[in-house]
């Protein structure tokens, strides 16, 4: 099935947002820990119970400042900690995907950075296994040319580490100078044999360095209708988290577009 939801809540707190999503026709939500993991496990559990009751699919976005390929060792250690904290809350919330931006090239060879990030993810995976925290690590396709994470890299990472991923269509569009071919993206993803695909969507502003800022979907950069048609035609099992500035309002519009194509 196709699930649509906002990045972050639309009520003053996460619990109320989860309770109200069904009433506005949405059935997914990404809990944003982008500025820090400031939630107790007890609350995470409560949110998880509510989500189960309401049949809302939850996911988690780990902090923005994660950098698994930092030149400073201490930053890598901290980044691992932030991912692990996000995974723990996700586990209690019954959320599956834990999304994070993997790291930066810092003027090094792409292959070298790939190995560093891969090894750090394997370390995290091993800790999760020991702690019996069952979530899907989901590195995201990134929008800046300085950031690790074009589609091929993230697919290769997911394949080698045996993890999931998050496809951010806006970021791919920005990385590719305003071009996107949804069919090609889905074709490439076939090597992973994923049962479920977790994605982000919005329109986006970009320049020669890549992404600048996210835009409302009415900007059609890229176009959502084309994606809606393909998802429906392929009967995909997919979740689209709306990251536009209009958040849940654009998510509602996305549902309308899906129903209209
Ligand atoms: Zn995103």
Can you describe what's shown?
With 261 residues, the chain is α/β, with parallel strands linked by helices. The chain has one domain: Alpha-Beta Barrel (TIM Barrel), CATH 3.20.20. 43% of the residues lie in helices and 20% in strands. It contains nine helices and twelve strands. The chain has helices spanning 14-20, 41-54, 73-93, 110-130, 151-161, 169-175, 182-189, 224-233, 247-260, and strands at residues 2-6, 28-32, 57-61, 97-100, 103-104, 136-139, 147-148, 166-168, 197-201, 203-207, 210-215, 238-242. It has a four-stranded parallel beta sheet with strand order 1-12-9-8. Helix 3 links the parallel strand 3 (57-61) and strand 4. Helix 1 runs parallel beside helix 2 (41-54) and helix 4 (110-130) crosses helix 5 (151-161). The radius of gyration is 17 Å and the shape is globular. The mean pLDDT is 97. Bound molecules: zinc ion.
